[in-house]
Amino acid sequence: MNTESKFKKLRAIALGLGVLVLSSVSSAVIIPMNLNVLDNDIQVGDTFDVGVSVDFDSSLELLSFAFEVDPLSTLSSDGVLNFQSWQVTPPLLPSLFPNPDLVEGMGDLFNPTMGAIDLQIATLTFEAIGAGDTNLSVLGLQTDFNGLTLYDFANGAFSEFDIDSSVQVSVSGVVPTSVPDVSQTMSMFCFGLLLLVGFRRKMK
Q: Does the predicted model carry a pTM greater than 0.90?
Protein backbone atom coordinates (compact mmCIF):
# COMPACT_ATOMS: atom_id res chain seq x y z
CA MET A 1 0.00 0.00 0.00
CA ASN A 2 1.52 3.38 -1.03
CA THR A 3 1.64 6.49 1.18
CA GLU A 4 -1.33 8.15 -0.49
CA SER A 5 -3.51 5.07 0.07
CA LYS A 6 -2.46 4.92 3.71
CA PHE A 7 -3.46 8.54 4.29
CA LYS A 8 -6.77 7.96 2.52
CA LYS A 9 -7.38 5.01 4.78
CA LEU A 10 -6.54 7.06 7.87
CA ARG A 11 -8.93 9.80 6.79
CA ALA A 12 -11.72 7.31 6.03
CA ILE A 13 -11.31 5.59 9.38
CA ALA A 14 -11.20 8.90 11.27
CA LEU A 15 -14.37 10.09 9.54
CA GLY A 16 -16.05 6.75 10.10
CA LEU A 17 -15.20 6.69 13.78
CA GLY A 18 -16.57 10.19 14.11
CA VAL A 19 -19.85 9.03 12.64
CA LEU A 20 -19.87 6.03 14.97
CA VAL A 21 -19.41 8.21 18.03
CA LEU A 22 -22.23 10.50 17.01
CA SER A 23 -24.64 7.78 16.03
CA SER A 24 -26.32 5.24 18.28
CA VAL A 25 -26.45 1.57 17.40
CA SER A 26 -30.03 0.43 17.05
CA SER A 27 -29.16 -3.24 16.70
CA ALA A 28 -25.90 -5.15 16.85
CA VAL A 29 -25.04 -8.67 15.80
CA ILE A 30 -22.97 -10.99 17.97
CA ILE A 31 -19.83 -12.07 16.14
CA PRO A 32 -18.71 -15.72 16.50
CA MET A 33 -16.15 -15.82 19.29
CA ASN A 34 -14.30 -18.70 20.95
CA LEU A 35 -12.73 -18.94 24.39
CA ASN A 36 -10.04 -21.63 24.17
CA VAL A 37 -8.69 -22.97 27.47
CA LEU A 38 -5.05 -23.73 26.69
CA ASP A 39 -4.59 -26.34 29.42
CA ASN A 40 -6.41 -29.68 29.61
CA ASP A 41 -5.45 -30.49 33.20
CA ILE A 42 -5.81 -27.52 35.54
CA GLN A 43 -5.09 -28.04 39.23
CA VAL A 44 -5.28 -25.71 42.20
CA GLY A 45 -2.27 -23.40 42.17
CA ASP A 46 -1.78 -23.56 38.38
CA THR A 47 -1.55 -20.48 36.16
CA PHE A 48 -3.06 -20.97 32.71
CA ASP A 49 -4.11 -19.03 29.60
CA VAL A 50 -7.37 -18.69 27.71
CA GLY A 51 -7.14 -17.65 24.06
CA VAL A 52 -9.83 -15.30 22.70
CA SER A 53 -10.48 -15.78 18.99
CA VAL A 54 -13.03 -14.53 16.47
CA ASP A 55 -14.24 -15.58 13.02
CA PHE A 56 -14.85 -13.05 10.26
CA ASP A 57 -14.31 -12.66 6.53
CA SER A 58 -10.78 -12.14 5.23
CA SER A 59 -11.90 -9.07 3.25
CA LEU A 60 -12.56 -7.20 6.50
CA GLU A 61 -10.04 -5.49 8.75
CA LEU A 62 -10.20 -5.48 12.53
CA LEU A 63 -10.18 -1.89 13.79
CA SER A 64 -10.86 -2.27 17.49
CA PHE A 65 -12.35 -4.45 20.21
CA ALA A 66 -13.20 -4.09 23.88
CA PHE A 67 -14.86 -6.44 26.36
CA GLU A 68 -15.20 -7.14 30.06
CA VAL A 69 -14.00 -10.36 31.66
CA ASP A 70 -16.43 -11.92 34.13
CA PRO A 71 -19.04 -9.11 33.90
CA LEU A 72 -21.34 -10.78 36.46
CA SER A 73 -18.52 -11.45 38.98
CA THR A 74 -19.15 -15.18 38.76
CA LEU A 75 -15.48 -16.00 39.35
CA SER A 76 -15.41 -14.04 42.59
CA SER A 77 -18.45 -15.81 43.99
CA ASP A 78 -17.29 -19.28 42.90
CA GLY A 79 -13.78 -18.88 44.31
CA VAL A 80 -12.28 -21.09 41.59
CA LEU A 81 -10.38 -18.68 39.33
CA ASN A 82 -8.61 -15.35 39.72
CA PHE A 83 -8.21 -13.16 36.61
CA GLN A 84 -4.61 -11.95 36.54
CA SER A 85 -3.74 -10.22 33.26
CA TRP A 86 -4.30 -9.98 29.51
CA GLN A 87 -2.42 -9.14 26.35
CA VAL A 88 -3.41 -8.56 22.74
CA THR A 89 -2.04 -10.65 19.88
CA PRO A 90 0.42 -8.81 17.57
CA PRO A 91 0.16 -7.02 15.24
CA LEU A 92 -2.83 -5.78 17.24
CA LEU A 93 -2.00 -3.03 19.72
CA PRO A 94 -3.28 -2.36 23.25
CA SER A 95 -5.57 0.62 23.66
CA LEU A 96 -4.01 4.09 23.86
CA PHE A 97 -6.25 4.81 26.85
CA PRO A 98 -6.17 1.61 28.94
CA ASN A 99 -9.05 0.88 31.28
CA PRO A 100 -8.34 -1.65 34.06
CA ASP A 101 -11.87 -3.04 33.75
CA LEU A 102 -11.65 -3.75 30.00
CA VAL A 103 -9.63 -5.87 27.60
CA GLU A 104 -9.05 -3.46 24.72
CA GLY A 105 -7.13 -3.64 21.48
CA MET A 106 -6.93 -1.87 18.15
CA GLY A 107 -5.57 -2.61 14.71
CA ASP A 108 -2.27 -1.29 13.41
CA LEU A 109 -3.16 0.91 10.41
CA PHE A 110 0.12 0.09 8.67
CA ASN A 111 0.07 -3.61 9.45
CA PRO A 112 -3.64 -4.48 9.26
CA THR A 113 -5.18 -7.54 10.87
CA MET A 114 -7.48 -9.13 8.31
CA GLY A 115 -10.19 -11.64 9.04
CA ALA A 116 -9.70 -15.38 9.36
CA ILE A 117 -11.24 -18.43 10.97
CA ASP A 118 -10.32 -18.69 14.66
CA LEU A 119 -8.22 -15.51 14.60
CA GLN A 120 -6.75 -15.06 18.07
CA ILE A 121 -7.01 -11.45 19.24
CA ALA A 122 -6.09 -11.70 22.92
CA THR A 123 -4.84 -13.99 25.67
CA LEU A 124 -6.27 -13.98 29.19
CA THR A 125 -4.25 -15.31 32.13
CA PHE A 126 -5.86 -16.86 35.21
CA GLU A 127 -4.78 -18.50 38.45
CA ALA A 128 -6.65 -21.54 39.76
CA ILE A 129 -7.36 -20.78 43.43
CA GLY A 130 -9.94 -23.46 44.25
CA ALA A 131 -11.25 -26.80 43.04
CA GLY A 132 -14.54 -27.02 41.12
CA ASP A 133 -16.30 -25.88 37.96
CA THR A 134 -16.95 -22.26 37.01
CA ASN A 135 -18.31 -20.36 34.04
CA LEU A 136 -15.88 -17.90 32.46
CA SER A 137 -17.64 -15.24 30.39
CA VAL A 138 -16.72 -12.14 28.39
CA LEU A 139 -19.07 -9.36 27.29
CA GLY A 140 -18.66 -6.30 25.09
CA LEU A 141 -21.75 -4.36 23.99
CA GLN A 142 -21.85 -1.66 21.34
CA THR A 143 -24.32 0.25 23.48
CA ASP A 144 -21.48 0.63 26.01
CA PHE A 145 -19.05 1.63 23.23
CA ASN A 146 -17.40 -1.79 23.47
CA GLY A 147 -17.68 -4.82 21.18
CA LEU A 148 -15.81 -5.26 17.92
CA THR A 149 -15.52 -2.91 14.93
CA LEU A 150 -14.51 -4.09 11.45
CA TYR A 151 -13.77 -2.07 8.34
CA ASP A 152 -14.27 -2.93 4.68
CA PHE A 153 -11.81 -0.61 2.97
CA ALA A 154 -12.93 -1.60 -0.52
CA ASN A 155 -16.47 -0.39 0.17
CA GLY A 156 -15.69 2.16 2.86
CA ALA A 157 -18.12 0.47 5.24
CA PHE A 158 -17.95 -0.19 8.98
CA SER A 159 -19.49 -3.15 10.77
CA GLU A 160 -20.14 -3.32 14.50
CA PHE A 161 -20.62 -6.44 16.59
CA ASP A 162 -21.38 -7.31 20.18
CA ILE A 163 -19.04 -9.70 21.98
CA ASP A 164 -20.71 -12.31 24.17
CA SER A 165 -19.13 -15.68 24.89
CA SER A 166 -18.49 -18.10 27.74
CA VAL A 167 -16.76 -21.38 28.53
CA GLN A 168 -16.80 -23.76 31.48
CA VAL A 169 -13.49 -24.28 33.28
CA SER A 170 -12.83 -27.23 35.59
CA VAL A 171 -10.14 -27.18 38.27
CA SER A 172 -9.16 -30.31 40.15
CA GLY A 173 -7.78 -30.38 43.67
CA VAL A 174 -4.17 -31.36 44.23
CA VAL A 175 -3.95 -34.88 45.67
CA PRO A 176 -1.24 -34.77 48.38
CA THR A 177 1.58 -37.26 47.97
CA SER A 178 1.59 -39.67 50.93
CA VAL A 179 4.80 -39.55 52.94
CA PRO A 180 5.65 -42.84 54.69
CA ASP A 181 5.88 -42.77 58.49
CA VAL A 182 9.59 -43.25 59.25
CA SER A 183 8.99 -44.62 62.77
CA GLN A 184 6.51 -47.17 61.48
CA THR A 185 8.90 -48.24 58.74
CA MET A 186 11.77 -48.68 61.20
CA SER A 187 9.56 -50.72 63.56
CA MET A 188 8.60 -53.07 60.76
CA PHE A 189 12.25 -53.37 59.71
CA CYS A 190 13.37 -54.25 63.29
CA PHE A 191 10.52 -56.74 63.68
CA GLY A 192 11.51 -58.44 60.44
CA LEU A 193 15.14 -58.55 61.53
CA LEU A 194 14.22 -60.20 64.85
CA LEU A 195 12.16 -62.82 63.01
CA LEU A 196 15.11 -63.54 60.74
CA VAL A 197 17.51 -63.95 63.71
CA GLY A 198 15.06 -66.19 65.53
CA PHE A 199 14.60 -68.32 62.42
CA ARG A 200 18.34 -68.82 62.02
CA ARG A 201 18.72 -69.82 65.71
CA LYS A 202 15.91 -72.32 65.30
CA MET A 203 17.63 -73.83 62.27
CA LYS A 204 20.84 -74.34 64.28
A: no
